[in-house]
Amino acid sequence: MTDDKRYTRSVSQLKSYTRCGQAYFLERMVRPRLPEAPAAWTALGSAFHAAYEGWELTSRQQPLADWFDRAYEMEISKLKERQPDLSQWLKRPNVRTVERDIELYAEIGRKQAEAYQEHCEEAGWVLYELPNGLPALEVSFEINLGGVPVRGTIDSILEWPDGRVTVRDLKTGNVEEDNRQLGLYRHVAIEQFGLDLRWGEFWYTKRGVSGGWVDLTRYTKEYLTEVYEALDRGIDNRVFLARPGSHCEMCGVKPYCPEKGWLDERSRQ
Fold first, then answer.
1. What does pTM read for this prediction?
2. Which CATH class is domain 126-227?
3. What is the residue extent of each domain of the chain?
4. What is the 3-state secondary structure (H, E, C) of 200-255?
5. Residue 2: its pLDDT value, please?
6. Which of 65, 172, 267, 269 could form a disulfide with 45 if both were Cys (CB 3.0 to 4.6 A apart)?
């Protein structure tokens, strides 16, 4: 049995749906939910964002790496509660065991946290102050594009010495260039905070570098409305096409995929 409608769309839905429609269906539409395979890299991503938020909100009083250590341990514990059998977890093919993969990602995440703290302390920007007096960090929003409610969270809005304001999204995994995400954040910053905002960037913690400045003026409200209305139509009309590729190896619902998998018949209904 599956859901027929998700009334609120999101940035993550757009990314998931356009990456692979079949994975979107398996992850989000099948009921009861299929058991997804946990992976240490997802714990790293969640932990890094939580750690950075905690570090900034406490005025950077403790090392970011210490924040990460605690957050990563909590995320791994949550995943183990959901799936205690580590043989069912995903891991990188060049690592022998899941246990070792978990240990290695703890080390990787700590190094990324150390490097990002150094970057933040040397950078010329400061976090933009929102009207409520809080720093523009993990800024949740919900807006309407046409008739489609869209929700999401902006990682950070930065203010520069020359008065420029930019949006930044932290990426802990591989390089990706879905600039529609940054474009949506620009629109939210303009609509909700009245900011004169043109530029955005992805910051890749894995490499410790920016993906480069992206001119976001092409992502008008009209264009974004077309994108999210198309997403809404595709889901409503149950258009869930598989897009096989190298990303399949890291897919948590691969075992249930009609294209790549071999398990639960619910995925074929």
1. 0.90
2. alpha beta
3. 9-28+240-269, 30-122, 126-227
4. EEEEECCCCEECCCEECCCCCHHHHHHHHHHHHHHHHCCCCCCCCCHHHHHCCCHH
5. 40
6. 172
